[in-house]
Design brief:
Layout (H helix, E strand, L loop, with lengths): L3 E6 L5 H11 L3 E5 L7 H10 L5 E5 L1 H7 L10 E5 L2 H9 L6 E6 L7 E4 L2 E3 L1 H12 L3 E4 L8 E2 H5 L5
Parallel strand pairs: 1-4, 1-5, 2-3, 2-4, 5-8
Antiparallel strand pairs: 6-7, 8-9
Length: 162
């Protein structure tokens, strides 16, 4: 099992992450990549308060993290990287945060979005971003919680009518 789980989740840190994904992945570190949250003392504090103290928490801007990402620095850690949206995940990937697999867990509904699963709504730009990741060799799985059967992006894309 890879020691870094990259996940897109609009809610970032929440109960599902702490109660399902952290134990499943045996994570000892959570990294939040979000430009709005990074540097916002209040929002960073709230995230740090809800995460158990034995789990390291880091909050970074997307490009700041990607440009300085060094896989060697993460050895010995089991890290969940949470990214708010698919386009930020692609932006991080393009800027140097290399990953071979990404979990799409929660993408809220909005204008122009198409329902793919009960918790994942995608628009044309999301699909283009995911296609670019797939074209770069990244495996994209859609799965809300660890107990769900993962759906491959190609299977899900066939159901999308955009």
């Amino acid at each position: 099992m890879n020691s870094i789980l990259v996940r897109v989740d609009n809610r970032l840190v929440h109960g599902q992450i702490l109660e399902a994904w952290v134990p499943y992945f045996r994570a000892n570190c959570i990294v939040v990549l979000n430009d709005d949250v990074a540097g916002d003392v209040f929002r960073e504090s709230v995230i740090r308060m809800v995460v158990p103290s034995e789990i390291e928490v880091q909050v970074h801007g997307v490009e700041e993290f990607a440009e300085h990402f060094n896989p060697g620095e993460w050895s010995g850690r089991r890290t969940i990287v949470l990214i708010r949206d698919i386009r930020d995940a692609l932006r991080a990937f393009r800027k140097g945060f290399s990953f071979s697999r990404i979990n799409i867990g929660n993408v809220h509904n909005d204008d122009g979005k198409c329902c793919v699963t009960a918790s994942i709504f995608l628009d044309e730009l999301d699909v283009k971003a995911l296609n670019e990741l797939v074209g770069s060799g990244v495996t994209v799985e859609l799965r809300c919680i660890p107990q769900d059967n993962p759906i491959g992006f190609s299977d899900a894309a066939a159901k999308i009518s955009l």
